[in-house]
Amino acid sequence: MNILVVGGAGYIGSHMVAHLLKEGANVTTFDNLSGGYRDAVLGGEFIEGDLADIDLLDNVFNDNNFDSVMHFASFIEVGESIHSPSKYYRNNVTNTQNLLDAMVKHSVKHFIFSSTAAIFGEPQYVPIDEKHSMAPINPYGRTKLIVEQMLADYDRAYGLKSISLRYFNAAGADPETRIGERHVPETHLIPLVLQAASGRRTSISIYGDDYDTPDGTCIRDYIHICDLCDAHLLAIKALQTKNESAAYNLGNGNGFSVKEVIDTAKVVTGIEIPVQVADRREGDPARLVADASLAMRELSWSPQFKELDKIIQHAWLWEQKL
What we know:
Helix content is 40%, strand content 18%. It has ten helices and 14 strands. It has a seven-stranded parallel β-sheet, with helices on both faces. A three-stranded mixed β-sheet has the order 12-9-14. Strands 7-10 form a two-stranded parallel ribbon. Strand 5, helix 5 and strand 6 form a beta-alpha-beta unit. Helix 6 (189-198) crosses helix 10.
């Protein structure tokens, strides 16, 4: 496999590069380092560049014989997307189109897209399967849905085959602690809880404890980053063998509440974690859990790290290293 990984210096992208290298693939990482880290790319060729640079993209495809492209270079903060929609449409939609156009021009036919559960909007039922209606409630989710629709059009018109993988909550870190999660600012629950455990943060906030759930806090589906990467690897192989476009929801299939995450982190770290209860955040559903049975059937995917304590343990090892 000769694969271009766009956004390969970020959290998910860097773990994907590591997985591909372990598989013996030839990997080229393309990243502008706006949210990633050069030292997170553990091997292969690295090109610093931006998807807005059409001439650079053309040169990259001219100089390499890629058979597949994986795209992780999206902006992902829901709140920011509401306040700065232009930034999100320009990067997540326009820049992705630049990438797809370069692929069409250079006859690269296989594309893996990092999508999101945010395309579904407020859940009508849980667990959420691929038949759930798509009605995103923020610009971030809308940009991802637009790209999925764009991919369907590019398949019909140009024969570009793609698989969109809709994540719920990526979590954890490389078990060998070579790489992990380090967003700035950090907004994901598990690393925030562990920062409170390590002393990098004074406390962790629970946004609402009066939801219609067993303990009153929101329930989310956490998927280990390594399991996520395994699904991407299987998706690439499926494109190579079947040459058919598809979309899959990816999650653990189990929901864990905010309080469960905090309590499990206390056990894993052996540290009492200061907690504050704050007001609910607008747009936070009570439950978000994936039905990933389609990916399990069609990709033969099986998550290996389904236990919350194992996900948190690997993230804690990384937090201690930081």
